[in-house]
Amino acid sequence: MPKVKTNSSAKKRFKLTGTGKIARKSAYKSHILTKKETKQKRNLTQTSYVHDADMGNVKRMLAIGK
């Protein structure tokens, strides 16, 4: 069987935690920041986790498991 390649864009955007969850950064923090409130920009800085419904697709892109 051939090797499974990791998606290059996915390995830059997602990080596997020690407990097996996949961390991600929030969207809407790259540009057009002048119209956003300071509180919104501060909250977008925090990392969050990939939703359970999307976990299979992200794991497939990262070549984890299966």
Automatic annotation (TrEMBL):
One of its GO terms (molecular function) is structural constituent of ribosome. It comes from the Bacteria. GO terms for cellular component: cytosolic large ribosomal subunit. InterPro entries: Ribosomal_bL35, Ribosomal_bL35-like, Ribosomal_bL35_CS, Ribosomal_bL35_sf. GO terms for biological process: translation. SUPFAM superfamilies: L35p-like (SSF143034). The keyword Transcription regulation does not apply. Keywords: Ribonucleoprotein, Ribosomal protein. It holds the Pfam family Ribosomal_L35p. The keyword Signal does not apply. Belongs to the bacterial ribosomal protein bL35 family. HAMAP family: Ribosomal_bL35. PANTHER family: 54S RIBOSOMAL PROTEIN BL35M, LARGE RIBOSOMAL SUBUNIT PROTEIN BL35M. This is Large ribosomal subunit protein bL35. It comes from Sphingobacterium wenxiniae.
